[in-house]
Input
Amino acid sequence: MEWDHFDYSRIKEMRNNFVPLDTVKAFVGLRDGQSLIDVGAGDGFYSLSFASDNPKSEITALEPGRNGLLLIKKQISELGIKNVKAIEEDACKVHDYSSYDKVFFSSVFHDIWCKEEVLKSMSSTLRKGSEVVFIEFRKEAEAGPPQHIRISEEELKSMLEKHGFRLAASEKLRLHYMHKYINR
Output
């Protein structure tokens, strides 16, 4: 599997330098007791942060790469975190989001090959009022994935609106943008 050899340290460096954690947490707005799925959780950084701040929340870290999953499980054990469930699975195989209040994608949606299917599954199974948060690289950013696979803010908004989501908030960072959508 291609994700088994992914370099998570590169993402960690990018995240630490350009995506302020406090800004992300405030934007996501997870309240204690809400459930969240972190799609493409990578090394589990956000999943573990959300779980630590919200001990009554149930966090699912969905990661397709075995190495990422091992990193997440190791940190869960070392930190004694009880409210994170780590699952090795491709986002394209998840078809039921009904148990989540929030769905979180951090710099991964551009890599998902089945974007339309994921959006269709979310729109048909998420409860009304559930939120979907994206962090993606801006098209014009000087670093990030190849420009041809990046998703502009307008493209993302169009994709989500087509599936019944409404843009509720957006924020620009140096290399990234964040969007929050609400399921209607």
Notes: Strands lie at 35-39, 58-63, 84-88, 102-106, 131-137, 165-172, 176-183. The two ends are 36 Å apart (CA to CA).
